[in-house]
Design a protein that fits this description.
By secondary structure, this protein is mainly alpha-helical. The protein has helices at about 20-40, 45-75.
């Protein structure tokens, strides 16, 4: 499954700093691992709910990171 944290490189001069790219790559790796874990144990209600909660938290973290990147590149 492809990560929803990928972004298009339309203008390389506006790319975020390397540390932020690394953070997005880390979020993408977490996302893939979490989705694989969730699909491996669909019968366990607790693990399914827990992984859904973690996905929500991961998306929120990515949104905060994306906002910070937008603020950095707007300067």
């Amino acid at each position: 499954m492809q990560s929803p944290f990928d972004f298009a490189h339309l203008d390389p001069s506006c790319d975020p700093p390397e540390e932020y790219v690394a953070a997005f790559e880390l979020l993408a790796a977490f996302w893939c691992e979490l989705r694989a874990f969730r699909s491996a144990s669909p019968q366990d209600a607790f693990l399914s709910d827990f992984s859904a909660h973690l996905e929500t938290e991961l998306v929120a973290a990515a949104l905060v990171l994306a906002i910070q990147v937008e603020l950095l590149t707007a300067r």
